Amino acid sequence: MFYGVRPIVVTALITSILSSCATMPNGTTDGVGDPEREIFIQAVATGTLVGGAIGAAVGSAMANKHRTQGALLGGALGAAIGAIAGRIVAEQQLQNLHDAQFNNQRLNALLNTAEKRNREVATYNRKLKREITGLKGKKSQITVALNDAKQERQRVQHTIAVRQDLAPKLVPKQRAQYEQKLRYLQQQDRQLEGSIKRLERMEQGVVG
Asked: What CATH topology corresponds to 105-203?
């Protein structure tokens, strides 16, 4: 079974396999220092070495009198299988990496949006408190400010509801950061609620 197998043939086979399996999913073979490339090569190389070692041992044991040739052929076959398995593992690892990068980018966008909205609401609250001080006895202006404040609170509460719905869908570490922004907005909502109640009392002629 193993007669006629030359080392050069085995070497050529292994080289062909490694060349094929070492090609990145995007078709490239370069990218020295690229983390994705390093992950890919490490997984493929590990699969090739482990598969080759196991294949050589099995081939040698099964070859009886032709152990060297059996080890070579078994090693080549094992390396081929190992390289293919390593490539599959590598592709999954790269997909996990891409998913993690996407999640981080998405989280950063969510946090930036939440932070911007929090600043807007905090600024509105400070402005409203200053305005309330000068609205005593100005019923028409009080009414305008009250209606505006109620509309702003509706928008704030809608944002809170959206964040509460989204937070559980994030992974724990991301959820903790996002919920921190949520709690701050809830605090601003309570301040806005207090300002609205004060405006309502002022509108009724009872200055708080």
From this structure: Methane Monooxygenase Hydroxylase; Chain G, domain 1 (1.20.58)
